[in-house]
Specification:
Elements: H1 2-23, E1 26-28, H2 41-46, E2 50-51, E3 55-59, E4 68-70, H3 72-77, E5 91-95, E6 100-105, H4 111-115, E7 118-124, H5 168-192
Parallel strand pairs: 1-3, 2-7
Antiparallel strand pairs: 3-5, 4-6, 6-7
Helix pairs in contact: 1-5
Length: 193
């Protein structure tokens, strides 16, 4: 009897822990290019959805670059924090543990200010899903946005898109479907045991 109770408790723990483990994503910043100069990290991050529990992996040659987590002002101004606050292994992994805006820069030489080596992302709750955003139609008077580090935006803070709003109806269906699946699995496991 004790063995059966243990199996049920283990299954219950498994069904609670599995979603967090299975849903986390590891993002290599810059994909095959890695963390380097003269790369458009805004474009790289644009279509990605970052969630609590996901990991950012900054890959680069150690000694040539580093990674600093900064605030919005330091990001806009490329203000480098003290060296002991930086990561410099060449394969730095940052687990996204809270929601909100996150800013990262390279503190080597002028890599951030002159070469656009900086990344801004918005981290959503692990269960939130982004709402579809309508494509704005460009107006003739709207200037074309410039890329980080280009001559047109030197000294200007980068334009940052608003965080996607969670779609609670879709999220509710997703969670309900998952819970139904887990309940069915638990029932089958209970019958087998």
């Amino acid at each position: 009897m004790a063995s059966k109770q243990f199996n049920i408790i283990a299954l219950a723990v498994f069904t609670i822990v599995l979603p967090a483990v299975a849903m986390a994503t590891e993002f290599t910043v810059g994909d095959d290019s890695g963390w380097t100069i003269d790369f458009d990290y805004q474009a790289w991050a644009k279509d990605k959805v970052f969630r609590v529990g996901d990991k950012l992996v900054f890959k680069y040659t150690a000694g040539r670059h580093n990674v600093f987590k900064v605030n919005g002002t330091a990001f806009a101004n490329c203000t480098v924090p003290p060296p002991n606050e930086g990561l410099s292994s060449g394969k730095d992994v940052i687990t996204l543990s809270t929601t909100g805006r996150k800013w990262y820069i390279c503190g080597v030489s002028n890599h951030c200010a002159s070469h656009g080596q900086k990344l801004v992302i918005t981290v959503l709750d692990e269960s939130a899903s982004p709402a579809p955003s309508p494509s704005p139609s460009p107006s003739p008077s709207t200037p074309k946005p410039s890329t980080p580090g280009s001559a047109n935006n030197i000294g200007q803070p980068p334009s940052t898109p608003a965080a996607p709003a969670p779609n609670s109806a879709y999220n509710g269906i997703l969670v309900s479907g998952y819970q139904l699946l887990m309940a069915a699995m638990a029932a089958v496991a209970f019958l087998v045991v």
